[in-house]
Automatic annotation (TrEMBL):
It comes from Amycolatopsis samaneae. It comes from the Bacteria. This is Pyrophosphatase.
Length: 110
């Protein structure tokens, strides 16, 4: 899966969804929507781990819902980055991949 292509596709889906539901995707909307999705992921996690009511869902349904919420968070993060002109591939390379065990780490970062 190509990160740039997923970002393009998520943008197309988000644009259609916003138009269909009359949503103005403002500067604030992108970060607030990510926060909403994180809340839904937290709820799905708590339900999946038995720390919240399962609402009658089967273990498979709880697993599926958790996975779907992870996907929502990832796609919303892609949309937020895209909207603000963040080059995610570059940032991931600089922030995360420098610590890859197959690479030499020349500087300590956080």
């Amino acid at each position: 899966m190509d990160l740039a292509q997923v970002s393009d596709d998520a943008e197309a889906v988000s644009r259609v969804y916003a138009r269909k539901h009359g949503i103005d995707r403002t500067e604030q909307w992108f970060v607030l929507k990510l926060q909403e999705e994180l809340g839904e992921l937290t709820q799905a996690y708590l339900m999946r781990t038995g720390q919240a009511r399962g609402k009658g869902y089967s273990p498979q349904e709880l697993d599926d819902n958790f996975g779907a919420e992870v996907a929502d968070v990832v796609c919303q993060a892609l949309l937020l980055a895209r909207h603000h002109g963040v080059d995610l591939e570059d940032q991931i390379e600089r922030k995360w991949m420098m610590w890859h065990p197959d690479r030499s780490v020349s500087a300590v970062g956080d």
